[in-house]
Write a structure and sequence with these properties.
The chain is α+β, with helices and mostly antiparallel strands and about 90 residues long. It has three helices and two strands, in the order αβαβα. α2 packs parallel to α3.
Length: about 90
């Protein structure tokens, strides 16, 4: 989230975040407000990135609904206006 300050200082009014889940949604929302920014896009959790997972539309053993629920919670907290549905 350090880039939020830079984005605001450079005149941006909105930001995108690939996978913001390392930060708390509440903390991220506070940073957005502090810098006068709007979150316009973030991706749903990809799964185990280190193991090569890159999508939530995968095998039957994938906890996809849990990932969508996580993304929905983030959307409610940070207020993006767009969605990105990546399917493999």
């Amino acid at each position: 989230m350090p880039r939020f300050a830079t984005a605001a200082a450079d005149g941006f009014s909105a930001v995108e975040s690939l996978f913001p889940y390392a930060f708390g949604a509440t903390d991220m929302a506070a940073q957005l407000r502090q810098h006068g920014l709007q979150q316009v896009l973030f991706n749903a959790p990809p799964g185990d990135w280190e193991a090569g997972e890159r999508s939530i539309a995968c095998s039957a053993t994938c906890p996809c609904w849990t990932r969508w629920a996580t993304a929905a919670t983030w959307a409610a907290s940070t207020g993006p206006r767009g969605e990105s549905h990546r399917t493999g």
